[in-house]
Amino acid sequence: QKILSGGFLKSTKVMQDTFNKDYFLQIDVREVTEIPLYAPKAKIWSTHPEGTYEFVKGANDNLTFQITDTQRFWSLTKYLIIEVN
Questions:
Q1: pLDDT at residue 77 above 80?
Q2: pTM of the model
């Protein structure tokens, strides 16, 4: 099962109807506002309103994903998909 599908010169689909929910960690969305990514590059794939999150560069150029408006951020979906490089 894939969470992301598509590729070069194709549109990318995120979370098709039959995705495996076991691939995700459960969190308390009211309390989690930062997620360390331990990578210098990252891309968000899930749909969330602009201005409700940011990638913050820290030590060793590693990124932290920061949710700046939790209520609006989780308003469209309860799943977060981030690809790290």
A1: yes
A2: 0.79
